[in-house]
Amino acid sequence: MRHFLDLHKVPADDLRAILNQAVETKTARAGQGKGACDADAPLTDRVVALVFEKPSTRTRVSFDLGVRQMGGETVVLSGSEMHLGKSESVADTARVLSRFVDMIMIRTFEDATLLEMAEYATVPVINGLTDASHPCQIMADVMTFEEHRGPIAGKTVAWLGDGNNMCASFLHAAGQLGFDLTFGGPEVMDPDPAAVEFARSKGRNVRIERDAAQAVAGADLVVTDTWMSMHDAAEAREKRHALLQPYQVNAALMAQAKPDTLFMHCLPAHRGEEVTDEVMDGPQSVIFDEAENRLHAQKAIMRWCVEG
Ligand code: CP
Question: Which of 62, 161, 167, 250 has the fewest beta carbons closer than 10 A?
């Protein structure tokens, strides 16, 4: 049985195979309606539980649609309406869900919840975001970069702002898929040291910059994320914004990168805060390809899980 929990926990060859599969399936579907089933329907007679303890637009729709395109069905569950971790342990929830469904995708707060779910489930578990990582998103991001610019190996990604869960998964991907990463942000928001160490242990160059212009210089891809992640306390907003303002991705900052540097944001974005409209809607932005590729990348992830 294969769980998809984090990018540094899946063999690098398997990540590459998943990306290849995602491109193959996307290509094969070209011209078909969004509701059309894939030719081999690998999830026929299977049910996937989609568990959300946090809000979601992209993850929810892309997993739900993806399962249907693969011939399966979903049960969408809201954490607030479940016993999960409150009146029933995560372990027992995992055991019970495993009797009803063939796969579990969970978006939750603490990584420990995901790990407990995976430990006690007898079906594959997929990480749909925790406070610590967001591996499905970064698979879609790598797929999107490669669609536009070819292999990501040997390239440099500049991450601007908060060294959050997205940044950690980008560092895992850097180590696994062979690209370098420069973090540009305030010291108090430096990325997870373990994720930095993982990328460096694989021979990747990870730079920590305090100057935003230095961070994007020479980058092939500039990425940022909201300044208030779903787990950040509302009262921290003013302080965080003040610290992060110098790292706003705007046209002046993009001009410090290369003319063909791409821009990505996992969305939802707070236009005018971490990124300006000019960049979001500009020619270097591939944010909506990135959003669409959640569907294709996650279908390949689910296929990898069930084929295991
Ligand atoms: N990027 C992302 O995970 O989007 P949602 O929060 O809408 O799922």
Answer: 250
Nearest to 153 by CA among 10, 19, 257: 19
**Nearest protein Cα to ligand 1, atom 3:** 59
Task: For Cα atoms 52, 58, 59, give the angle at the middle one, nearest 5 degrees.
Answer: 40
Q: How confident is the model at residue 118 (pLDDT cuts 50, 70, 90)?
A: very high
Backbone angles phi, psi at 226, to 5 degrees: -55, 150
Whole-number Å distance, alpha carbon 56 to ligand 1 midpoint, is 5
- Binding site membership of 56 for ligand 1 (Cβ less than 6 Å): yes
Distance 203 CA to ligand 1 centre (A): 30
The pLDDT of residue 58 is 98
Q: Is 137 in the pocket of ligand 1 (CB under 6 A)?
A: yes
> Is the CB of 129 within 6 Å of ligand 1?
yes
Overall pTM > 0.70: yes
Atom index in ligand 1 nearest the CA of residue 291 equals 1
pLDDT tier for residue 228 given thresholds of 50, 70 and 90:
confident
Give yes or no for residue 266 CB within 6 A of ligand 1: yes
* 157-175 per-position pLDDT tens digit: 999 999 999 999 999 999 9
Residue 285, exposed/middle/buried by CB under 10 A (0-12, 13-18, 19+)? buried
What are the angstrom distances between the C-alpha of 5 and each of 163, 179, 195, 277? Answer: 19, 21, 14, 33
The closest of 229, 262, 246, 253 to 157, measured between CA atoms, is: 262
- Which three-class secondary structure string do you get for 215-248? HHCCCCEEEECCCCCCCCCHHHHHHHHHHHHHHC
CA of 22 to the centre of ligand 1 (A): 19
C-alpha closest to that of 252 among 288, 226, 281, 276: 276
